[in-house]
Specification:
heterodimer; A: about 550 residues; 4 domains; elongated; B: about 100 residues; 3-stranded antiparallel beta sheet; 3 strands; globular
Chain lengths: ~550, ~100
């Protein structure tokens, strides 16, 4: 058959070149057929025929590649290992296709939104977190910086505020607070929420003065300003338990501190902006669900509230003053002072504060009511004395109901979180080990078949066993990991969706505490003990094995002929 | 030999073309021309027939320098009977009929 005059057209040459490429990469098993097809291309009568023939060849090549790939997948990993002393019996039992399907199933489980959240949370719990030095891990710091950069570009004040309260970089925190407040003056409460940290020195006095001007009816800016004067002043006074008159006088002589505390106690409202902080956190987390709960909740853990010790102490100063007025016969002043303390404690207990603030408010109110009950009964005012005593009882009842684990439902939920935390961590570790083992086993069998073929039987058998069972273990561990994480995921979802944040916050903190407790225990002070205990047990087991094996061999050794 | 397979219309056409010049070696391109089957379908059919031992193959010596050797095909002796039977059965079932120019 003669060749066409068009055989050298660009299209025909391109078609020949493409077929040539296909033949060069043709799978070995069907390569002669590829060569046979390619050899016929010179017989085509026109450029159109050449292209048609070449296209058919490429289709055949693709089919051959797929067919060859499927054949390869049907073989077990390391299918080229047949030359070993034990032959094919020393290959893994499962085909590559089966193993790939199992690994794909495990990957799909972990790729679900719940799976991704579980991985993020558990990985965050494994990262070293230096709570004492207020230092975040590098990856958390990078995540927050990315958020801040994006928010800066988009002029997103709430995200800037969130990062400002979550970062442990003091300089950056100050910059971000200023930036966020400049963008949205409604975020002025950030001046109060940035907590005291050893390495963190924001311009607190200036900030609190601005906040006092913006929110003059709130007690918290005054109380925080008082704390700024000398936050550790009260601690030594409490060291010996009972306060003496001289110590009261020492504190009372500090007119600036007393003045600020007085204004705080007299302010008509108590709001430490915790609720605003919760709402801000929830908004940002809902917008960026990929954030790990550890990053999200860090800022809340360090939300600044007035010194509770100072509050208790000032309450006692006022009660002490009332006792002195009562002793001096100024009963109306005594009654008025006790009423002020009681009113402040009630405002604090009913205000927008955290649980601990409410409990302290109740404790302050209780001290004043107890004193009032005694005051009224000594004056023969039985009705007022009964009312004050009733208020004490009501406070006690409310405080009992707020204590963690006060009822069986809360206790059982806390225990359930503990168990689920252990399960999540356990299955997470098992999944990681199984994943690495599967990867290592498959790679060794696929990449170094010659070395594996020459390896000792025990190693080869171990590799085959790993290639067979590690992927299945990974799948089971992934499913169990996901299932055991569901209660935590539910707590996160509830937090993000509910407006009843205080109760959910507590539940979430409890859940995270249980989840983080195990790695903190393992990687904390007990790490060295655990590692040495493990090494000692492993060495003892090895020694015992060698001894028993030696004794067994000595007893069963054939006796030498004389 | 002796394996019965489900034959497609294209396979029957190839068998028919091979039977048309029974005993003679044929090239892939000429089979494609006579049956109108494109190369991407023809070669998998030839490959399958060879695997079933219905087809004999050999490489032809290159007639022109610089050209690759060509592959030749013909039905094996016993396969010819099988092929005729299959074609007859397919025609009776009206599953397939030879192209007009072949008929």
């Amino acid at each position: 058959m003669s060749m066409s005059t068009q055989e050298n057209s660009v299209t025909a040459r391109l078609a020949r070149w493409a077929l040539g490429c296909a033949v060069r990469h043709w799978p070995e098993e069907t390569r002669p057929w590829g060569l046979a097809l390619a050899a016929e291309i010179d017989e085509t009568a026109s450029a159109f025929e050449t292209v048609r023939w070449s296209l058919g060849g490429i289709m055949f090549f693709l089919r051959s590649v797929l067919w060859s790939g499927w054949r390869w997948m049907k073989l077990p990993a390391g299918g080229s290992l047949s030359g070993g002393p034990e032959g094919p019996s020393m290959l893994p039992k499962r085909s590559r296709a089966f193993t790939a399907a199992v690994l794909a199933a495990a990957a799909s489980l972990l790729a679900l939104p719940e799976g991704r959240e579980a991985i993020r949370t558990v990985l965050a719990s494994w990262q070293e977190y230096n709570w004492q030095d207020y230092r975040q891990s590098d990856s958390d710091a990078r995540t927050l910086e990315r958020l801040a950069t994006r928010a800066g570009k988009e002029k997103d004040a709430s995200t800037l505020a969130f990062v400002a309260l979550s970062t442990t970089d003091p300089k950056r925190a100050v910059e971000l607070v200023e930036h966020a407040v400049a963008l949205d003056p409604g975020l002025i409460w950030l001046y109060s929420a940035s907590s005291h940290r050893p390495n963190y020195a924001p311009p607190r006095e200036e900030w609190l003065a601005r906040l006092q001007a913006a929110d003059p009816d709130n007690a918290v800016p005054y109380l925080l300003a008082a704390d700024e004067l000398d936050p550790l002043r009260i601690c030594p006074l409490y060291q010996h338990g009972i306060l003496k008159d001289a110590e009261f006088e020492l504190v009372e002589s500090d007119s600036k501190w007393m003045g600020l505390m007085e204004r705080g106690f007299g302010a008509p409202r108590y709001d430490s902006y915790v609720q605003k902080h919760y709402r801000l956190t929830r908004t940002v987390w809902n917008r960026d669900k990929n954030l790990s709960p550890k990053i999200v909740l860090y800022g809340l853990w360090y939300h600044a509230i007035p010194s509770l010790l100072n509050l208790r102490f000032f309450g006692r100063v006022k009660i002490h003053e009332a006792q002195k007025a009562r002793a001096a016969g100024d009963l109306s002043r005594a009654e008025s002072l006790l009423g002020e303390v009681d009113a402040f404690g009630t405002r604090m207990a009913d205000g927008n504060g955290d649980k601990i603030e409410k409990l302290i408010g109740m404790a302050i109110s209780r001290s004043a009511d107890k004193e009032l009950a005694d005051f009224y009964s000594s004056r023969g005012n039985a009705e007022e004395a009964r009312r004050a005593a009733l208020r004490v009882e009501q406070i006690d009842e409310r405080a009992r109901s707020m204590r963690p684990g006060h009822d069986s439902a809360t206790r059982s939920q806390a225990q359930a979180f503990q168990w689920e935390g252990i399960l999540v961590q356990g299955f997470g570790i098992l999944g990681v080990i199984a994943g690495f083992a599967a990867l290592a086993g498959m790679l060794l069998l696929e990449l170094w078949p010659a070395r594996i073929r020459n390896a000792k039987t025990i190693w080869r058998r171990a590799l085959c066993w790993i290639a067979d069972y590690a992927p299945a273990t990974l799948l089971v561990a992934s499913a169990a990991f996901l299932m055991s994480f569901l209660p935590f995921q539910h707590a996160f979802t509830e937090y993000r969706s509910s407006s009843y944040v205080l109760a959910n916050q507590e539940r979430l903190m409890e859940a995270l505490g249980d989840l983080h407790g195990i790695p903190d225990y393992v990687m904390g002070v007990n790490a060295h003990v655990l590692i040495w205990a493990f090494v000692t047990i492993a060495l003892t087991a090895l020694l015992l094995f060698v001894l028993v094996n030696g004794i067994f061999r000595a007893r069963h050794a054939p006796s030498k002929p004389a | 030999m002796g394996l019965r397979i489900r034959l497609s219309k294209q396979t029957l056409a190839v068998l028919d073309a091979l039977l048309g010049r029974a005993g003679q070696w044929q090239h892939g391109y000429s089979l494609s021309q006579s049956t109108g089957i494109p190369s991407g379908t023809l070669y998998p059919i030839l490959m399958r027939l060879e695997k079933l031992h219905w087809l004999e193959t050999r490489w032809e010596e290159a007639k022109t320098r610089g050209r690759p050797p060509r592959h030749l095909y013909r039905l094996s002796g016993t396969a010819r009977e099988w092929a005729r039977e299959e074609i007859r059965a397919a025609q009776e079932r009206r599953f397939w009929k030879p192209a007009e120019h072949e008929a």
